[in-house]
Automatic annotation (TrEMBL):
GO cellular component term, pick one: endoplasmic reticulum membrane
Entries under Pfam families matching the protein: UAA (PF08449)
One Gene Ontology MF term: UDP-glucose transmembrane transporter activity
Location relative to the cell: Endoplasmic reticulum membrane
Descriptive protein name: DgyrCDS7801
Primary location group: endoplasmic reticulum
Membrane-topology annotation of the record: Multi-pass membrane protein
Organism: Dimorphilus gyrociliatus
Keywords recorded for this protein, A-Z: Endoplasmic reticulum, Membrane, Transmembrane, Transmembrane helix, Transport
TM helices/strands, residue ranges: 25-44, 51-67, 73-92, 112-134, 146-167, 179-198, 204-223
Lineage of the species this protein comes from: Eukaryota, Metazoa, Spiralia, Lophotrochozoa, Annelida
Domain of life: Eukaryota
Family according to the record: Belongs to the nucleotide-sugar transporter family. SLC35B subfamily.
Keyword Transport applies: yes
């Protein structure tokens, strides 16, 4: 799990050297799809057809809402190393989700336990990477030259740890797929709230995307409640 988690992060961050940030954000917005597909192929998960439809609606809505055209520029379609890295990152995200599903199916897991051991192994792998690349020796020099970076790293680490807690709490209690849906739609709602707070106008494409997201979330939520109700009746 740590290998796929780190691989997805490295591929996603490295992709920014080849593609603009909006492209990276847009690419990562389809994360629930590989999580669902690889969950089926590797973890043996089964979803009804309607579940696929709901997820595609949500992902398509987020993509429509977040996509930005370049004004005055000709539309070009390209596929290069940056896009390959994004696809690799998405496949590794799906692999992480399928492994988490397997762990949840075979063991009783707790939030802090999964979070701790994933990070312990991640530190080990990153330590090896630091030694092999030489960054273990160059970074102390950089931090002595720019000591203010240490405060930024501390704040970043604190925010990351708190964020990870909620992510792992969602994974252990509800599963990787709901977690990926939440993290994807979080970006959508962040931008949507800024639109209403600061009064930025929305174009027709963004309104269509907004409608798709809310329809997908509403149907998925309604289906989830109906399923839990049926399971509760069957158990009683």
């Amino acid at each position: 799990m740590s290998v796929t988690y780190l691989g997805a992060m490295l591929a996603s961050n490295h992709a920014l050297q080849f593609v603009p940030y909006p492209t990276q954000v847009l690419g990562k917005s389809v994360k629930p799809i590989p999580v669902m597909i690889l969950g089926v192929l590797l973890a043996g998960k089964r979803y009804p057809l309607r579940k696929y439809l709901f997820i595609v609606l949500i992902v398509a809505g987020v993509a429509l809402f977040m996509y930005k055209e370049k004004k005055g520029a000709a539309t070009t379609v390209g596929f290069g190393f940056g896009e390959i890295l994004l696809i690799t990152s998405l496949l590794l995200d799906g692999g992480t989700g399928s492994i988490q599903d397997k762990i949840r199916s075979n063991y009783t897991v707790k939030t802090f336990g999964m979070m701790l051991f994933m990070n312990v192994w991640s530190v080990l792998y990153l330590g090896i990477g630091l030694l092999l690349t030489g960054e273990a020796f160059s970074f102390p020099v950089f931090s002595f030259k720019y000591p203010s970076v240490l405060l930024h790293i501390f704040i970043f680490s604190l925010a990351s740890a708190v964020g990870q807690f909620f992510i792992f709490m969602t994974v252990t209690n509800f599963g990787p797929l709901p977690c990926s849906i939440i993290t994807t739609t979080r970006k959508f709602f962040t931008i949507l709230f800024s639109v209403f707070i600061y009064g930025h106008p929305m174009i027709i494409r963004q309104w269509i995307g907004t409608i798709c997201v809310f329809i997908g979330l509403g149907l998925d939520s309604a289906y989830g409640k109906q399923k839990r109700k049926v399971e509760k009746i069957e158990k009683s």
